[in-house]
Design goal:
The complex is a heterodimer of chains A (117) and B (113). Chain A is an all-beta fold and 117 residues long. Chain A has strands at residues 5-7, 10-13, 19-24, 31-38, 42-50, 53-57, 64-68, 74-78, 87-94, 107-108, 112-116. Chain B has no helices and 11 strands. Classes of the chains: A mainly beta (117), B mainly beta (113). Chains A and B meet through strand 5 and strand 10 of A and strand 5 and strand 10 of B.
């Protein structure tokens, strides 16, 4: 089975711009979660989508949004980029059927490295 | 609220030596606990997870962890380190079900020949 794929792998943007990141989950997985990883804050949960509905949300401003399509692929959008948004953005998928994120095994993609100048 | 503390941002061992990575958690309910590993330029990979069954959990690549409720700990061990074990390791806690995971800050494991 192919793993979780994320595109693009690297992005450079300037402050004020917006960006869209894409994630394709493992075939058959219906839950997709997004995480932000920075040296200072570590790994922080952004949100989770299950069957096109947002099921969980972390403590991030409204500039961070996401969606999930009927084929379970997910996109994450960040508007009005700030320097502090520079990070590795990780996507993870799970079946979503054996309970929720609290018990499911999540499979992570390699991430998208976003640099904001 | 749940939280995780990983003691030591860096741990150095020699090849063949015991690996011990420390994790302490805080949770208001019986926790679910996870250890993930991240190799350079890669995402996270699950090593093992505790879901209230056996307190000693065996994972991949020879790693294991023991849940100790009285010490609120879930330390990760491996009897003999390999060079390929050099990576960053993350401990995570959840309250199960539809709760989310809270990750520790990570511990970088360095293995010298």
């Amino acid at each position: 089975k192919a793993g979780v794929t994320q595109t693009p792998r690297y992005l450079i943007k300037t402050r004020g711009q917006q960006v869209t990141l894409s994630c394709s989950p493992i075939s058959g997985h219906r839950s997709v979660s997004w995480y932000q990883q920075t040296p200072g804050q570590g790994l922080q949960f952004l949100f989770e989508y299950f069957s096109e509905t947002q099921r969980n949300k972390g403590n991030f401003p409204g500039r961070f949004s996401g969606r999930q399509f009927s084929n379970s692929r997910s996109e994450m959008n960040v508007s009005t980029l700030e320097l502090g948004d520079s990070a590795l953005y990780l996507c993870a998928s799970s079946t979503g059927l054996a309970g929720g994120l609290g018990t499911d095994t999540q499979y992570f993609g390699p991430g998208t490295r976003l640099t904001v100048l | 609220a749940q939280s995780v503390t990983q003691l030591g941002s860096h741990v150095s061992v020699s090849e063949g030596a015991l690996v011990l990575l420390r994790c302490n958690y805080s949770s208001s309910v019986p926790p679910y606990l996870f250890w993930y590993v991240q190799y350079p330029n890669q995402g996270l990979q699950l090593l093992l997870k505790y879901t209230s069954a056996a307190t000693l959990v065996k994972g991949i690549n020879g790693f294991e962890a023991e849940f100790k409720k009285s010490e609120t700990s879930f330390h990760l061990t491996k009897p003999s380190a390999h060079m390929s074990d050099a990576a960053e390791y993350f401990c995570a806690v959840s309250e199960g079900g539809y709760s989310t995971l809270t990750f520790g800050k990570g511990t970088m494991l360095l293995v010298s020949p």
